[in-house]
Model the fold of this input.
Amino acid sequence: MIETDVVVIGAGPVGLFQVFQLGLLGLRCEVIDVLPEAGGQCVALYPDKPIYDIPGVPVCTGRELAAQLLKQARPFLPVDPVTGQVAHLHLGQQVLSLSPAAPTQPAEDDSQPPHRFTLQTTSGQTFKARAVVISAGAGAFVPKTLALPGLPPEGPAPVNLHHHLPIDGQRAPWAGQHVVVAGGGDEALQTVLDLTQAAEAIRPSRITLLHRRDQFQADAALVQPVRALMAQGRIELALGVPQGVELAWSDAGVNAPPALAAITLLGPDSQPRQLPLDHLLVRLGLSPKLGPLADWGLPLERKQIPVDTATCATSINGIHAVGDINTYPGKKRLLLCGFHEATLAAHALLARLYPDAPQHLQYTTTSTVLHQRLGVQH
Done:
């Protein structure tokens, strides 16, 4: 059980800036995101493409923007110098349920507002929060997967089925083994290029690109080097439509997950064949889905949450929504607007949680309180 002032759902650019704004006002928060890396769609969909409309930043990539926002929020999302883990940032898990918190005995310090919400995630983690900010963009970006019998959601997730590349510093599970990359778009081709250029200690011994036909829906700048590596024999191409999988079960017990041993392909000759593998890395892109959010009792308009324009508050007291997930008259789905909404939501939450406290607007240029919270040394 993790107790906090605010849970922020979504670690995209607006969610990260929301953490900064809440921290400036002295509110503690925890951040949850379904992706394995902070940055939202900026990092997941266009990490290396230029962004030109961030105030004061003439141009930056999606990955650079996420890195700068993480650095800005560092006083409130500190990094463990030993493990490199970012505190209060919970990645690779989705919020399954958001419900009113069960009443508890009055705390000794009755100056603290009660925890009003309980959140459960797919990793089994439980959070209790006094307020919630939904910064989920167009929804939770979940990877597209192969819809095959025996694979999720029909069966348990095999231990060697992957949808994401390891984050910097993590060991690649396929080092020295045969990895099959499924896909024919930019994401899949960039992945096989990255795998061939990886350090020897983490590089697969064999790389196979699996696609239904010998044509790719990818940028020519990616197709050309991939074709060259195929000609050199460094990348194999397996053509066919996946029809099924062969699973191998361990002796670790009935609850132990299986492993993928092979994929059954229907080839261009309409004959089935087996493609043995050590690891399957599915790179078919990401798809935004509202998922469990649709069951939280919030009204939706075209998959967006209506909010009050002054506070970004939803119809449920204590829940606010910022960024692309919200809607109101005149809404513009721009990062610039999301940053403004995060600021409004933070100040509104402070006034809601501590209505008797003075609500003075302070400036980072002059406020010693804000400097202390930011760790600024004079």
